## 1
Amino acid sequence: MVKRFDKNGRTSQRSTMKDKQTFANLSDFLQQLQTTPTIPPVHLWQPEYCGEMDLVIKANGEWWHEGRPILRQRMIDLFSRVLWKEGEDYYLKTPVEKIKIEVEDVPLSITCVDQIEQQGQSYIRMQTANQDVFILNEQHPLSLREFKGEIRPYVRVRYDLEALIQRQAFYHLVDLGELFEQEGKTILKLSSGSTFMELIVA
């Protein structure tokens, strides 16, 4: 359900009627995305804010709607393509609607890390669970930070959206890098093309 609010933050009495249209519009737009392999230009859209949807992206990467997990991966993939972040808030955004959702940690997750060769250089390639594929570089930097007492690795994917690097993918990333000790700390050094990164991992 989408909760709509007036200027004072009160729930709109017309929300029930508008909810059906909102879902219909979102569904229609997502169907159109199925024929387009690229990420849509979400940054160019300036839609009206339409309220909140009971959709939660859990810290473990699961998507839940109205208290139930979404099991259709294709649906999750489509929703992920219209994710948008403003400040600390997350939305699903189309050219005509912007719907707020809840994200417990970050909205995306890295499930695959490998190394490729292009024009004589080695690059680290990453892939999200939703089929985003990109090269680790200055536009896609790594970071480590705490979440509920656990230090987690992240990477920026697009439009300020970050992905959690899943455990097995991070182990592979470590294998592609070089570990060394400096001032009592363990540092992971990575190279991807002309980009060099260092992470304090212990």
## 2
Amino acid sequence: MDYSKSGGPKRRSTAPKHGEHKLQEPKGKQPPKEALLARMKAAAQAKAAK
């Protein structure tokens, strides 16, 4: 029996129906690790100064 023709609800697609999300945040472009380390060191120094 073909249950796809029995009138049940269709499965929802998880993909968005527009391409604007791709323009906002391109994948694969992470900030450099040096920037992360600099932020972490600054936060640690600020916490130690309190």
## 3
Amino acid sequence: MIKDLLIVADAVGEAAGPYALSLAREVGAAAGCLYLQPEGGDEAPLAELPYGFALSAREAALAVVRDAADDLSYAARTADVPMETETLSGSAGDIRSPLLDRARLADLIVVERADPGRDKPADAYIEDLLLGAGRPILVVPARWGRPARFGAVTVAWDGSAAAARALADALPLLSRAERVRVLTVQTEAVAGVSEGGARVVKHLGRHGIAADYRAIISGTTVGETLLAEVAQAGVDLLVMGTYGHSRLREVFLGGASRDLLRRITVPTLMAH
């Protein structure tokens, strides 16, 4: 059951907040919005500026965040979704610990992923949330621009503990789906995979969720094939774990993690 959503946002993103509010309204949840305002480093080298300029830049940045928070609060009231907002500012190290503390008490965390070539503050914390929050993360592409809906949902299944965790975390959303597909992508055939997929379909059936199963042998990488299948099927939500027997750990948490996450074109629920 999803009753407590946490939106992790910044003043740059525009997709996660509206998506999360529509989701909260759909499932009857309250929402909290945590705005991140990092200071220092490459994103905002305020410490290197003269005091007066640094203060002005910091105040201007916080004003932008306040405006974004006010806009989202208004949208929440309009949607009749209870919501509280909070801002975390400071260095990246200062933000990380309180961010994880708050995230660990959410049923679901919603965060936006920027387009390729466009960094934004919340991007830097997605992997921290995936690996450290212990809660499912729903990553919304920057250009999604649509409310939450669950006409077609794909569950990426590789038999791993993380895939099982993602499946369990997604049950409240899968129960609302019109069509659910369990999808296994491999780079080579492995015995017993089809039987495992059939067991997932049976398990979902016991929760009153009708699903079908498909296994694919990929000619490229698991990630490339998965993204292509999702795009072709017109999926509204992808569900997957971050670790597994396949290359999902390499793809999502290795050197190519930022690239692939940015290329996701549909909201993606991930669990670790």
## 4
Amino acid sequence: MAPMDSLPKIDGVRPARLDDLGRIALVAAAGFYYSPVFHYQRPYYDAFPEDTIASYQAEYESVMLDPNSIVLVAEQVPDANETDKAYKALQRLCPSKPQTGSNGKVVVGVASISLPPNSKRSGVIQLKGTSTYHVQTEPRQQRDQCTKGGELYSEATAPAKAKYLTGQMRLTTLAVHPAYWQHGHGTRLTNWCIRLADLDQVPVGVSAAKMGVKVFAKAGFQEEVKVHIDGYELPDESRDSFGCGEEEPANVTPIELWIGVRRPLPRQKPWLWRMLSCFIKAENEKL
């Protein structure tokens, strides 16, 4: 087992708990709204924000209960006006005041990590064995999503992900509530992941929309490929049955996905070995 004290330590970042799930779902919806992938896969988000929340809550619960995955959260003191920064449909589901934890802070960012096969970290970072836990949500109807969009996205991205990301540690998701942008939370969550990869001396991969590329490139990820995903026309029957008005677009625009990989930095030598190496080098230069 990998001891907890061998994990990266970054201020404001910690492994998520199951009781964070409600807040995580809200943060994910608010943050991912600004990604073109969100609009590609969830064209009916405006009509069914409750389905979006339920979807993210179920997704992150599944990841947290997976021994080969990690969910991280970033925290800070809440902004009393954070609801104003969420998209309009989501605002209807936001509490009037964010509920803080015992530290006076709220979850403002979330990231998930997929561990490589046979990782020594498997099952030891987040508490498991919570089979009696049940998320209290409405049935996950996925009315905000379009099946065609999900299928096209998977078909287009699967070959590149298989080629460049299979067997790697992966930073699978990263989202920050827009009320807390420009506070460094995305960078800190990313840095936690890459420090873990450096500790374990493994590469880490990521697939990202354009808005995330700057953060990942700064963290040392190098581009492997860009994947183009064709746009599509929304089925008439789904628009009619969901009651979407004329303001809803009939077509979903194409998007592009960036895939990058960061190789681990070499482990630093212990200070005594570094001093000895310098001494040996100096003596050799005298010869």
